[in-house]
Amino acid sequence: MAICVASQWIIGGLVSLPFTFYISPYCAVPQWLLFYTVLIFIIVPALITLIINLKIFKHVHDSSKRIHQQMTATTGTIIIRQQPAINRRDLSLLKHDLYVFNVYYWMDSNFFS
């Protein structure tokens, strides 16, 4: 617990260092610092959120494939039921993930405009 809190404080301090050293009087901000701001506050969190949501979706999709039966045995014959590539539960999760990502990205990008 203490390592997690300490690492967040250290990373937060390191991320904010360029702002303390490179903002000159009258709020003149170098061009690279504006790019750094967009990168740190919009692009990196959006990528982290997208990667985490994709990992969640992959885990749910894999568990759905394990849960649903692929074959049903009847009197001596095997009937193979064709499962759709993506079922309704997975599709609903994917839609929800995309919606949450779009809302997050839209709110985050409107905050800086």
UniProtKB/TrEMBL annotation:
Transmembrane region(s): 33-57
Originating organism = Adineta steineri
Task: Write the record's keywords in alphabetical order, separated by commas.
Answer: Membrane, Transmembrane, Transmembrane helix
Please give the name of this protein: Uncharacterized protein
